[in-house]
Amino acid sequence: MNLRQLEMQLERLEGFERPTARLEQYQTPAPVAARLLHHAAMQGAIEDCRVCDLGCGTGILACGAALLGASAVTGVDIDPAAIAVARRNAGSLGVEIEFLVADIRSPNLDRPPLSCDTVVMNPPFGAQKAHADRPFIDLALEIAGEVYGIFNEGSTPFVAAYTEGRAAIEEVIRCAFPMKRTFAHHRKERVDITVEVIHLRRI
């Protein structure tokens, strides 16, 4: 499946029904999700690999990984409503994904079942709570050797410093992230921001 075909499949998926600002529930745009996944696939990190989508929301990254031939895909999110949409999305594409409702920040999180080859994720940018992405980075590097994450523009120096001694940044891809009007405090129908897709490899 080429990049455009993947993007078209992901465009079909449902978004959040009632997004929550506290959880920074912005829908990952299909072009961004497709680019991350296609790039990871070209590097051998998706097909025939076990993939985990941390903070999966409505499952766009998880669904894309399954479409690209992952041997097993797990999606984890704290919001049961988002997981319900994710399950419908997987069903509409005819892919099998295990979706779990869990808080990745909890010390009681059952980690062994999440162990995988590759983590894909779009963690919170920290607009509502500073450093909200740190628990995602920590868990990702604990359970996988390869990590592909979407971060706010300018995050690379922080990610490099935060993961020093644990991981190396293999590549950074900058791309446009069209953010549609989602919450009451948003004044524009759409704002285009720049994000960084960061590929981390555990040391």
TrEMBL record:
Q: Name one GO molecular function term.
A: methyltransferase activity
Q: Which Gene3D superfamilies has this protein been placed in?
A: Vaccinia Virus protein VP39
User: Which InterPro entries does the UniProt entry name for this protein?
Assistant: DNA_methylase_N6_adenine_CS, rRNA_MeTrfase/Polyamine_Synth, SAM-dependent_MTases_sf, Small_mtfrase_dom
Alphabetically, which GO biological process terms does the record hold? Answer: methylation
Keyword Methyltransferase present in the record's keywords: the answer is yes
Indicate the segments forming the Methyltransferase small domain, all copies: 45-132
Q: Which UniProt keywords apply?
A: Methyltransferase, Transferase
- The superkingdom listed in its UniProt entry is Archaea
SUPFAM superfamilies named in the record: S-adenosyl-L-methionine-dependent methyltransferases
Write out the similarity annotation: Belongs to the methyltransferase superfamily. PrmA family.
Give the protein name, as stated in the record: Methyltransferase-like protein 5
Species source reads Methanoculleus caldifontis
